């Protein structure tokens, strides 16, 4: 088995784990786990905040009007959904579409980190304000950072994070569409750049086990995404779902 095939198999295993996940209370209110979908070898990955009502019903990300606009914007730069991978910070819908809570982000971030490590994207587009703040670990709003690529480390992998407005913004504010188009127009050049230099490998972290969390010392370091969520909160005024394997 080659390296690419091995990564696909590992990604399927992460999907199987996520599909029956009960790590947080969202497992009690969700309809379906929305793991993500697309090309397992994608150079371009999109990460939103959390599934909405349509996604919760169908188990697939961005299946509503915002998803259709995303498809259109991809088409305008010569790409299609089957060439990218789309996921969310949370894999389950928060009730009433409320914002994700720090504890939910902490327990779910392992899935996103493992997705990034196995897919190995060159560029990750954060969709909207919340996902941008979380992945950049900074409370600066999307209006100030959209269209500006930065290299960040997510889990064990360095990637170019490219913040853009959520496509839903253009559905409510039509003038936003041209801003989205201008940002999308930068993607081909970004994807043509070499992948960022990767950090030195570290010892493997044991897989998540609830007892490990329960027994952890009170001064144990918090997950960076969850820590970022806390800062933002303080600052704020079946396998065929995986697509092209």
In short:
With 245 residues, the chain is an alpha/beta fold. It contains 11 helices and 6 strands. The protein is globular and about 40 Å long.
Overall spatial form: globular
**Percentage of residues assigned to helices:** 40-55%
Say what oligomer this is. single chain
Strand content: 5-15%
Number of domains: 1
Rg from alpha-carbon coordinates: 17 Å
**Would you tell me the overall average pLDDT?**
86
Describe it for me?
42% of the residues lie in helices and 12% in strands. A hairpin with a 2-residue loop joins strand 5 and strand 6. The protein has 245 residues and is of the alpha/beta class. Mean pLDDT is 86; it is low at 210-221 and 235-240. It has a single domain, classed as 3-Layer(aba) Sandwich (Uracil-DNA Glycosylase, subunit E), CATH 3.40.470.10. It has helices at 3-19, 53-58, 65-76, 102-119, 129-136, 142-145, 167-172, 176-184, 187-192, 210-215, 224-235, and strands spanning 37-38, 44-48, 85-88, 123-127, 150-154, 157-164. A six-stranded mixed sheet has the order 1-3-2-4-6-5. The longest helix has 18 residues, at 102-119. It has eleven helices and six strands.
């Amino acid at each position: 088995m080659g390296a690419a095939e091995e990564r696909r198999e590992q990604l399927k295993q992460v999907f199987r784990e996520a599909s029956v996940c009960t790590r947080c209370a969202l497992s009690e209110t969700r309809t379906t786990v929305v793991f993500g979908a697309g090309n397992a070898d994608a150079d371009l990955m999109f990460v939103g905040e959390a599934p909405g009502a349509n996604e919760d019903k169908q188990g697939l990300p961005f299946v509503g009007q915002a998803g259709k606009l995303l498809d259109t914007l991809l088409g305008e730069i010569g790409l299609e959904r089957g060439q990218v991978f789309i996921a969310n910070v949370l894999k389950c819908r928060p009730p009433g579409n409320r914002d994700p809570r720090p504890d939910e982000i902490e327990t779910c971030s392992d899935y996103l980190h493992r997705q990034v490590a196995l897919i190995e994207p060159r560029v990750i587009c954060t969709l909207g304000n919340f996902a941008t703040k979380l992945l950049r670990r900074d409370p600066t709003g999307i209006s100030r950072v959209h269209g500006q690529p930065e290299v960040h480390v997510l889990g064990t992998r360095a990637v170019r994070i490219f913040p853009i407005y959520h496509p839903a913004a253009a559905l409510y504010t039509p003038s936003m569409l041209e801003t989205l188009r201008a940002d999308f127009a930068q993607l081909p050049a970004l994807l043509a750049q070499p992948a960022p230099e990767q950090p030195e490998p570290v010892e493997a972290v044991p897989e998540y086990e609830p007892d490990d969390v329960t027994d952890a010392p009170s001064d144990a370091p918090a997950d960076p995404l969850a820590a970022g969520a806390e800062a933002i909160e303080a600052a704020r005024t079946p396998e065929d779902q995986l697509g092209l394997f």
